[in-house]
């Protein structure tokens, strides 16, 4: 039986502005069923996301540029190649105080 590989491209021209950043949700994606959700995320220079928390755990895969993960008491610098794991119920925001875009892929799942 032939192997089927499905590729989902970044599609930077199809990002939508929401929550203080440009993003594109993974779902809906045809017949894909997965135990997680995800989104391509791009913070333009000077962007700051809304501070929020949720019941899901969240993993950021930093793709390009650099930014900051801000929690209640700390700002954590991150850059392309870094992974960030946020526990459930953690107040957080993402900032880009730099002169170039900061892109990451966010994956979240129920804790």
UniProtKB/TrEMBL annotation:
Pfam families the record matches: Cupin_2 (PF07883)
Keyword Metal-binding: yes
Domain of life: Bacteria
Record carries keyword Metal-binding: yes
InterPro entries given in the database record: Cupin_2, GPI/OXD, RmlC-like_jellyroll, RmlC_Cupin_sf
Gene Ontology molecular function, alphabetical: metal ion binding
Signal peptide coordinates: none
Domain Cupin type-2 positions: 40-107
The protein, known as: Cupin domain
Keywords noted in UniProt: Metal-binding
